[in-house]
Design brief:
With 235 residues, this protein is α+β, with helices and mostly antiparallel strands. The chain has one domain (57-234). The chain contains 6 helices and 9 strands, in the order αααβββαβββααβββ. The chain has helices at residues 2-22, 47-55, 58-65, 107-129, 179-182, 191-204; strands spanning 71-74, 89-94, 98-106, 133-138, 163-171, 176-178, 210-212, 224-227, 233-234. Strands 1, 2, 3, 4, 5, 6, 7, 8 and 9 form a 9-stranded mixed sheet that branches. α4 links the parallel β3 and β4. α2 (47-55) crosses α4 (107-129). The longest helix has 23 residues, at 107-129. The chain starts with a helix and ends with a strand.
Length: 235
């Protein structure tokens, strides 16, 4: 009897999903897995799925970005003979924070940034310091190279502007929190800085597919690498 009940529940769920897909069952956009992700909404269990779909649809992605405070300019696709083509990219000038410089990013990366900034970065700053982040220092996004700049091997996510490296965060009172100097508490260092950086690193894993920091290897001792590639790593 229990097996039959379980089967009936699965069939009902499948029928509901098919109805949503066909437009026969009306559900609020927030709970509709096929509705465009609202980057301003509180994240939920569907956010990751919708974000991955958004990253594969530049037109819908740019429309979603346009509803946020991110300041960006769509850029044309650019082929490359060196396997460093740019597709579905935007140039970001600023968001609710200022950046050390503008940067090119895939729309999916920019979308993940807006979620990360609103739901991880700023709440962590307010929790640990009672103020917001005003400026983010980064080490770049686009670089036509292999992983770690090696002569051989696979292309880095930076080769498609699908990654960003974050070096430091500056609060509204001018306090600077840098990955290189503040990841570990040394001497009289403010332990809040290390705690803040760890919360930011851990929280970034909610929205980026790959997050690498000082605990990963020596090459990342001075920054957090965030990307929207295929691999799932949070270190």
């Amino acid at each position: 009897m229990l097996r039959w009940l379980a089967l009936l529940v699965l069939l009902a769920a499948a029928g509901t999903a098919a109805g949503v897909w066909a437009g026969l069952v009306a559900v609020p956009p927030r709970y509709d897995p096929w509705a465009r992700l609202d980057l301003r909404a509180e994240p939920d269990w569907l956010t990751g799925f919708k974000l991955s779909r958004l990253a594969r649809d530049p037109e819908q992605c740019r429309a979603a970005l346009g509803e946020t405070g991110l300041r960006f300019t769509p850029l044309p696709d650019r082929p490359s003979d060196e396997n460093c083509a740019l597709s579905g990219v935007v140039r970001v000038s600023r968001s609710d924070v200022a950046f050390s410089s503008g940067f090119i990013a895939t729309c999916g990366l920019a979308a993940a940034w807006t979620l990360f900034e609103a739901n991880v970065l700023q709440p962590a700053a307010e929790r640990h310091f009672g103020r917001k982040v005003a400026r983010v220092e980064h080490l770049g996004t686009y670089a036509c190279r292999n992983v770690y700049g090696r002569a051989e091997g696979r292309r880095s996510e930076h080769a498609g502007a699908n990654a960003i490296d974050l070096a430091a965060f500056v609060l509204t009172d001018g306090t600077r929190i840098g990955v290189l100097n503040d990841w570990e508490t040394k001497g009289g260092s403010d332990g809040r800085k290390a705690a803040f950086l760890r919360e930011v690193r851990d929280g970034a894993c909610r929205f980026f597919n790959v997050v690498l920091g000082p605990d990963y290897n020596e090459a990342h001792r001075n920054h957090f690498h965030l990307d929207m590639g295929r691999f799932g790593v949070c270190r």
